[in-house]
Amino acid sequence: MLKKIILIGIFFWAYGSLLAQGQQWSAEKAKEWYEKQNWICGVNYIPANAINYTEMWDKTGFSPKVIDRELALAQGIGINSVRVVLQYAVYEDDPSYFRKTFERFLSICDKHGIRVIPCFFDDCVFGVNTDPTIGKQPEPLEGWYAWAWSPSPGYTKVADEREHDKLERYVKDIMQRHKDDPRILFWDLYNEPANTLFQKEYHFKLLKKVFAWARTIDPSQPITTGIYLPDMEINPFLIENSDIITFHCYADPEYTEQQTLKMLQYGRPVICTEWMLRTQNSTIKAIMPRFKELHVGSIIWGLVNGKTQTHLPWGHRPEDLPYTGVWQCDIFHGDFTPYDPTEIDLIRQLTR
Q: What is the number of alpha carbons within 13 Å of residue 279 lying toward its C-beta?
């Protein structure tokens, strides 16, 4: 009898622990959270003087004065949120430094009334380096779109499961410290998993682990990962595990409308966490008012044009210079003058 009582006790303890670790928010809880937010109008942010997110966070590149000036510019036009990719390589080198640097970044954002959407991992690569390297980063290669972009944690660590315990400590460390931090808007766990990569199963496996790690922390902010292609085999997992629905859409107004309405059918708050591609008529004038009308959050790419050269089209190479077309992304020149003043006026109008 005693043995039976002990086994029953262990069962209820384990069940209670599982519940305590959290699970996908109900649609009602997600909606309740969303209704408390101002309309989300933000940018995917990287400082103009950083060629990649490694340089943004690294000891050799972190520039709080630049960030402060640029976010003051963002605040002045009504931007209320920024989405940023963290860099595991910088954390791995010196966790204490990274924690302090991230705290400083959050403080700068808070000073300007801007909330942060952190991404722990990113699989995108536009150049030749599939693993990040800390320290001084290369200078831009003129005419090459985002040529020195650095993923996080890098392909080698994604594929090597022996490294995943370290990645788990990183995710839990940062999230535990900020699980109730009002400066965090929500957690975007993994940017475009398996984009431009070789064996998707490695990246999808890590993605699923990251969701599990995040649930053990059970933050007060919602967690998500964005759908970036409509036919990805991982999309059902994302819908079933994200508290809020996020997606990327660099397309014309008609296709953007179709994808947005599809996302709204899931009955959860919806935020487009990457969009604006002027070369495809994905423009602030054509799309942002509709997002506001549908109460769909809007996070454009990006703020101040700089070393990443994201004004160029995807895949642009030096041999294609000079480029004389419209800017693909970014809303300000490096001297803080608007690329198109009417875009700035519209953002101000929509965020009043």
A: 15
Q: Is the peptide bond before 322 cis (omega within 30 degrees of 0)?
A: yes
For the stretch 261-304, pLDDT in tens is: 999 999 999 999 999 999 999 999 999 999 999 999 999 999 99
pLDDT at 112: 98
Report pTM: 0.93
Burial call 123-162: b when 16+ CB within 10 Å, e when fewer: bbbbbebbebebeebeeeeebbbbbbbbbbbbbebbbeee
Output the six-digit token pair for 227: 């759908």
3-state SS, residue 189? strand
Does pLDDT of 89 surpass 90? yes
What whole-number distance in Å separates Cα of residue 236 and Cα of residue 259?
A: 15
On whether the 26-350 domain is CATH 3.20.20.80, my answer is yes
The domain locations on the chain are 26-350
Q: Cβ distance 80 to 351 under 8 Å?
A: yes
